[in-house]
Write a structure and sequence with these properties.
Number of domains: 3
Number of helices: 23
Helix content: 40-55%
Largest sheet: 8 strands, mixed, barrel
CATH class of the largest domain: Alpha Beta
Strand order of the largest sheet: 1-2-3-4-5-6-7-8
Structural class: alpha/beta
CATH architecture of the largest domain: Alpha-Beta Barrel
Radius of gyration: 34 Å
Strand content: 15-25%
Length: 608
Amino acid sequence: MNLCLDRTQQFSTFLDEVRRKIPLELPFSRALYEVFLTQSLTTQFQPIVDLKQKRVIGWEALTRGPVESPLHRPLDLFYAAEQAGVLFELDLLARQCAMRRFGKEVEEGDKRLFINVMVGALATEGHVSGMTHQCLAELGLKPDQVVIELSELHPVADIDQLAKAVDYYQQQGFRVALDDVGAGYNGLRIWSQIRPDLIKIDRYFVSGVDQGTEKRQFLESMVNLAHSFGAEVVAEGVETEEELRIVEQLGVNYVQGYLLGRPSCTPQTHINYTWPEAVLSSLNAQNTAGGLAADHWLTLQPDMRVEEAMQEMLNQSQQDFYPVVDTSGRVHGMIWRRDFMNKLLQRFGYELNSRKPLSELMDDEPIIVHEKAPIETLSRMLTDDAMRVHRDAFIVIRDGRYLGAGTFLDLLRVMTDLKVKSAQYANPLSGLPGNVPIQAEVQRRLDEKKTFSVLYTDLDNFKPFNDTYSYEEGDRVIRMVATLLQAEALPGDFVGHIGGDDFVIISEHPLSEVETLVQRLIQRFAEEAKRFYRAEDVARGGIEAVDRHGEMRFFPLMMLSIGVLHVAPGLITHQQKVSSLVTKAKKAAKRDPRHYVIQRVDEAEAVA
């Protein structure tokens, strides 16, 4: 069928032929006939989110039958079409409806439409070639805005024919995704033959991936395999923060699921979920006085008469303070409502003051801070001032001009939020940054293509010490390690606490300086650790304790082991790989008589 001459007429003829094929004696035949007669399919759009950019890059088009029809549910709709022998034709109609809706709703050229195409439809000789391309041209869309999703849920009779069809679409500029990977019929052969641009991993492997090791191992293997084929990975069915965290760690490129956004009748660019880093960034914007400055407060001018100011204040009676600002934006002072009214309500107070300029009754020494002043500084200023004259507001300026004002309650609220968020990302025992900020620091250096080293420190023989001397003493040792690492770290180094007796240092200093630091840390710890043992245990060089097999044996004094991973730019793209390699380095250090090893990442390890 040649659609290029008169697509509208030929598509209408195509639909007529489909309707004639539908056996009327089957259940739902009439409803299915109506679908093809009225082209009354509806399309919903579920967002697909780029994990690196934290933004929507496109939507998967999900087909539904008419709302009042018994074929509204997609399972019923496509089952009826399969029974009637018009499954591929329904697939084609759904595609056309999705593209038409997308063309009407989306103007941004960098967003993509993911449309489902049955593998069998593309591999069939009778497939209507060119219809998708022609429809896009009429809508003013380009092929690179469309990703064709091939489902693995149906077997492929002719993979060679499918490969030819996929190659044709890719040459036209379309991208091709293999959908439902891991839950279908076709396996690795179809991967290797059609070379998809994207792999969409079935939700089975994503759901509950944080609750056990098996799914995580399967998911990690599929991600690594896809990347080795040069394909990007979409994880489907992400519904919890824990699942999202794991797929991010494993290097998944894109995610789709209810946590990020549900299907909608119109393509939504808003993401329902806010990443913890974004929350912290938002709070960090309020780490300065500028983040607390509100401009909705009524301001008064210094040359106003008191009687005029009083009338303005009566009209805005919910305020307790009024910044005094001239027309150029220069701040002159503050009127405190209580003090102002008390003065006017005194005997003869109004008569004596009503015609004076406001500047004579204002506080000309309020707290005035620059917008970039840290909130800690502001807090000290406001607390000291409140103790002196009971003031609870401040004025914020930018370039010497009034920007806004804030209250003591605003400040307390933000400082409380910051403490809560800080507690969520800091190790409670040491106060050092925990896993989330550690991962972010590694990823930032990878993204910026920095050369850096990761030092993974671990305590040898810590458990027998902990069991023998008590957990309280063990906590004291861990706090000592945190203090030691912070004191000895090189300028600019990042120190974090993974948990337990595991710490990391991230350093961009030359490797020779890093090695000197490692040697110094091991020596200093050996000296400090003796303070935690009884004199007789130090004298004999260790303690008797029960090992993991339940047997009593001798354990030497605690020592610090450090595995160092030196990362050159461009070899690794995701922090999860760094974590894996530096863990191996730490294990090697525990076997080394020097108590440390230094390993460099080479190209073989980076892609392993």
